[in-house]
Protein backbone atom coordinates (compact mmCIF):
# COMPACT_ATOMS: atom_id res chain seq x y z
CA UNK A 1 0.00 0.00 0.00
CA UNK A 2 3.02 2.29 0.06
CA UNK A 3 2.79 3.00 -3.66
CA UNK A 4 -0.30 5.21 -3.38
CA UNK A 5 1.69 7.65 -1.28
CA UNK A 6 4.10 8.25 -4.10
CA UNK A 7 1.40 8.89 -6.70
CA UNK A 8 0.45 12.13 -5.04
CA UNK A 9 4.01 12.90 -4.02
CA UNK A 10 5.27 12.36 -7.54
CA UNK A 11 2.68 14.70 -8.97
CA UNK A 12 3.76 17.42 -6.60
CA UNK A 13 7.46 16.89 -7.02
CA UNK A 14 7.20 16.80 -10.78
CA UNK A 15 5.18 19.99 -11.04
CA UNK A 16 6.04 21.98 -7.92
CA UNK A 17 9.04 20.90 -5.93
CA UNK A 18 8.26 22.93 -2.83
CA UNK A 19 9.79 19.92 -1.24
CA UNK A 20 7.73 19.20 1.83
CA UNK A 21 4.38 19.06 0.09
CA UNK A 22 5.01 15.43 -0.74
CA UNK A 23 4.77 14.72 2.94
CA UNK A 24 1.04 15.38 2.71
CA UNK A 25 0.61 11.76 1.91
CA UNK A 26 2.30 10.75 5.15
CA UNK A 27 -0.48 12.27 7.25
CA UNK A 28 -1.07 8.95 8.95
CA UNK A 29 0.40 7.04 11.89
CA UNK A 30 -0.62 9.79 14.29
CA UNK A 31 1.98 12.23 13.00
CA UNK A 32 -0.31 14.46 10.98
CA UNK A 33 0.30 17.64 12.95
CA UNK A 34 4.05 17.06 13.04
CA UNK A 35 4.15 16.43 9.29
CA UNK A 36 2.01 19.47 8.62
CA UNK A 37 4.36 21.68 10.63
CA UNK A 38 7.36 20.23 8.81
CA UNK A 39 5.75 20.82 5.43
CA UNK A 40 4.79 24.37 6.36
CA UNK A 41 8.34 25.08 7.52
CA UNK A 42 9.85 23.50 4.40
CA UNK A 43 7.61 25.40 2.00
CA UNK A 44 8.24 28.64 3.87
CA UNK A 45 11.99 28.04 3.64
CA UNK A 46 11.75 27.39 -0.11
CA UNK A 47 9.62 30.49 -0.67
CA UNK A 48 12.01 32.60 1.39
CA UNK A 49 14.95 31.31 -0.62
CA UNK A 50 13.06 32.18 -3.80
CA UNK A 51 12.41 35.67 -2.42
CA UNK A 52 8.67 35.15 -2.84
CA UNK A 53 6.43 38.12 -2.20
CA UNK A 54 3.89 38.12 0.62
CA UNK A 55 1.18 37.67 -1.99
CA UNK A 56 2.92 34.60 -3.44
CA UNK A 57 3.38 33.15 0.04
CA UNK A 58 -0.30 33.66 0.84
CA UNK A 59 -1.39 32.00 -2.40
CA UNK A 60 0.86 28.97 -1.85
CA UNK A 61 -0.30 28.75 1.78
CA UNK A 62 -3.92 28.64 0.59
CA UNK A 63 -3.05 25.74 -1.75
CA UNK A 64 -1.21 23.96 1.05
CA UNK A 65 -4.11 24.44 3.49
CA UNK A 66 -6.66 23.11 1.01
CA UNK A 67 -4.60 19.97 0.47
CA UNK A 68 -4.05 19.41 4.18
CA UNK A 69 -7.81 19.70 4.69
CA UNK A 70 -8.14 16.50 2.64
CA UNK A 71 -5.81 14.44 4.83
CA UNK A 72 -8.12 13.49 7.72
CA UNK A 73 -10.69 12.05 5.31
CA UNK A 74 -7.97 10.08 3.51
CA UNK A 75 -6.76 8.71 6.82
CA UNK A 76 -10.27 7.69 7.87
CA UNK A 77 -10.93 6.17 4.45
CA UNK A 78 -7.73 4.16 4.64
CA UNK A 79 -8.60 2.85 8.10
CA UNK A 80 -12.11 1.89 6.94
CA UNK A 81 -10.64 0.20 3.87
CA UNK A 82 -8.30 -1.96 5.95
CA UNK A 83 -11.11 -2.99 8.29
CA UNK A 84 -13.40 -3.89 5.40
CA UNK A 85 -10.75 -5.90 3.57
CA UNK A 86 -9.70 -7.75 6.71
CA UNK A 87 -13.33 -8.51 7.56
CA UNK A 88 -13.80 -9.98 4.11
CA UNK A 89 -10.56 -11.99 4.25
CA UNK A 90 -11.48 -13.43 7.65
CA UNK A 91 -14.41 -15.21 6.04
CA UNK A 92 -14.05 -18.81 4.92
CA UNK A 93 -15.08 -17.72 1.43
CA UNK A 94 -14.26 -14.06 0.80
CA UNK A 95 -16.16 -12.42 -2.02
CA UNK A 96 -13.55 -11.55 -4.69
CA UNK A 97 -15.87 -9.00 -6.28
CA UNK A 98 -16.27 -7.20 -2.96
CA UNK A 99 -12.52 -7.14 -2.28
CA UNK A 100 -11.84 -5.82 -5.78
CA UNK A 101 -14.56 -3.19 -5.35
CA UNK A 102 -12.97 -2.07 -2.07
CA UNK A 103 -9.56 -1.80 -3.74
CA UNK A 104 -11.03 0.06 -6.72
CA UNK A 105 -12.74 2.54 -4.39
CA UNK A 106 -9.49 3.20 -2.53
CA UNK A 107 -7.58 3.69 -5.76
CA UNK A 108 -10.27 6.12 -6.91
CA UNK A 109 -10.02 8.08 -3.65
CA UNK A 110 -6.24 8.34 -3.94
CA UNK A 111 -6.47 9.28 -7.61
CA UNK A 112 -8.90 12.05 -6.72
CA UNK A 113 -6.43 13.30 -4.11
CA UNK A 114 -3.52 12.99 -6.55
CA UNK A 115 -5.50 15.05 -9.07
CA UNK A 116 -6.07 17.74 -6.42
CA UNK A 117 -2.36 17.72 -5.57
CA UNK A 118 -1.54 18.06 -9.25
CA UNK A 119 -4.00 20.94 -9.62
CA UNK A 120 -2.44 22.57 -6.58
CA UNK A 121 1.01 22.11 -8.05
CA UNK A 122 -0.11 23.72 -11.29
CA UNK A 123 -1.62 26.65 -9.39
CA UNK A 124 1.61 27.07 -7.41
CA UNK A 125 3.53 26.91 -10.68
CA UNK A 126 1.52 29.87 -11.92
CA UNK A 127 2.12 31.78 -8.68
CA UNK A 128 5.90 31.68 -9.13
CA UNK A 129 7.74 33.80 -11.65
CA UNK A 130 9.75 32.28 -14.48
CA UNK A 131 12.95 33.14 -12.63
CA UNK A 132 11.74 31.57 -9.38
CA UNK A 133 10.74 28.38 -11.17
CA UNK A 134 14.13 28.23 -12.89
CA UNK A 135 15.87 28.59 -9.53
CA UNK A 136 13.65 25.91 -8.02
CA UNK A 137 14.17 23.46 -10.87
CA UNK A 138 17.92 24.02 -10.76
CA UNK A 139 17.85 23.06 -7.08
CA UNK A 140 15.73 20.02 -7.90
CA UNK A 141 18.21 18.93 -10.54
CA UNK A 142 21.06 19.12 -8.03
CA UNK A 143 19.06 16.99 -5.57
CA UNK A 144 18.25 14.45 -8.29
CA UNK A 145 21.90 14.19 -9.28
CA UNK A 146 22.95 13.63 -5.66
CA UNK A 147 20.33 10.89 -5.26
CA UNK A 148 21.55 9.16 -8.40
CA UNK A 149 25.14 9.28 -7.15
CA UNK A 150 24.07 7.44 -4.00
CA UNK A 151 22.30 4.70 -5.94
- Give the topology string: H per helix, E per strand: HHHHHH
Strand content: under 5%
Helix content range: over 70%
Helical region count? Answer: 6
Averaging pLDDT over every residue, what do you get?
83
Low-pLDDT residue spans: 1-23
The Rg value, from CA coordinates, equals 18 Å
Question: What structural category do the secondary elements indicate?
Answer: mainly alpha
Main beta-sheet annotation:
none
What distance separates the N and C termini?
Answer: 24 Å
Looking at the structure, what is the overall shape? Answer: elongated
Number of domains: 1
Number of strands: 0
Structure description:
By secondary structure, the chain is mainly alpha-helical. It has one domain. The protein is 78% helix and 0% strand. It contains 6 helices and no strands. The chain starts with a helix and ends with a helix. 21% of the residues are buried. The N terminus is likely disordered.
Detail the topology: elements first, then pairings.
Layout: H1 3-15, H2 32-49, H3 54-68, H4 71-89, H5 96-127, H6 130-150
Give a quick set of tags describing it.
6 helices; mainly alpha; disordered N terminus; single chain; 151 residues
Q: What's a quick, concise take on this entry?
A:
By secondary structure, the chain is mainly α. Helix content is 78%, strand content 0%.
Amino acid sequence: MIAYKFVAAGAVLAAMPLAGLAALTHYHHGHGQMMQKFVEWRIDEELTELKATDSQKQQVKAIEDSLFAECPALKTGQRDFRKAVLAELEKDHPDPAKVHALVDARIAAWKTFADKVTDGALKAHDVLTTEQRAQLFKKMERRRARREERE
